[in-house]
Amino acid sequence: MLVGVSILTFLISHVVPSDPARTYAGPKADEETLNAIRERYHFNDPLLDQYFFYLGGLLQGDLGDALIDRQPVADHLARAFPASVELGIAASLFAIPAGIWLGIHSATHRNRPADHLNRVVALTGISIPSFWLALILQLALVSWLGLFPLDGRLDTGQEAPTSITGLYVLDSVLTGNLNTLEQSVRHLILPAFALGFSQLGLILRMTRSSMLEVLSADYIRTARAKGLSERLIVYKHALRNAMGPTLTVSGLLVGGTLTGVVFIESIFGWNGIGEYATKSAYALDFASILGFTLLVTLIYVAANLVVDVLYAFLDPQVRLGG
Amino acid sequence: MGDEVLLSVRGLKTHFETYEGTVQAIDGIDLDIERGQTVGLVGETGCGKSVTALSILRLVPDPPGKIVAGAIRFKGRDLIGLTDAELRGIRGNQISMIFQEPMTALNPAFRIGEQIAESLLRHQAPRLTRAAIEQLEREVEARKEGRRASPVSSGEEWRCSACQAPAVHGDPACAGCGASFRGFFRRLLRPLGLRWERRALRTLEKDPEDLYLALFAYIPGLRGFQRRLERVAHTDVVAALRSVRIPEPDRIAAAYPFELSGGMRQRAMIAMMMACKPDLLIADEPTTALDVTVEAQILELMRELQKSTGTAILLITHDLGIIAENCQAVGVMYAGTLAEFGSAETVFGAPAHPYTHGLLQAIPKIAPGERTRRRRLFIVPGTVPNLLYPPPGCRFHPRCPYADDQCSDEVPLLRELRPGHLVACHHPIGKEGS
Amino acid sequence: MASFFSAFAARHESRLKELRYSWFLFRHNLLAMAGLLLVIFVALVGLFAPLIAPQDPSYATVGGHRVEVWQPNYAEQFESPSAEHWFGTEFFGIDLFSMVVYGARTSFMIGAFVVFPAMLIGVVLGAFAGYFGRGIGETIMRITDIFLSIPALVLAMAIAAVLGRSIVNIMYALIITWWPWYTRIVYGQVLSLREKQFVEAARSVGAGPLRIIFRHITMNSLSPVIVQATSDFGYVVLTAAGLSFIGLGAPVGTAEWGLMINEGAKYMPNYWWSSVFPGVAILVTVLAFNLLGDGLRDILDPRLRR
Question: Residues B138, B218: one domain?
Answer without folding.
Answer: yes
